[in-house]
Amino acid sequence: MNVDADLFNRINALSREEEALYAKAGDGSGLDGDDVARLEEIKVQLDQVYDLLHQRQGRRDAGQDPAGAHIRAADVVEDYKQ
Known about the structure:
Elements: H1 3-29, H2 33-61, H3 74-77
Helix pairs in contact: 1-2
């Protein structure tokens, strides 16, 4: 199993779902409360997966095992400065 490939697949799936929600909003009907909540969840999950990929690459670059990387809590990744 290739963990990085699985993470990229997860990113792609979340991005497709995000795009579908934006397309739904773009038809003029907007989004209901559940859709807005899901969009926020997707954004957090994307941040978490990207963070995990960066951790894994950082560990590789430092000569460490990328398997030591772990998904961080939403409040941690959401507080990063862009």
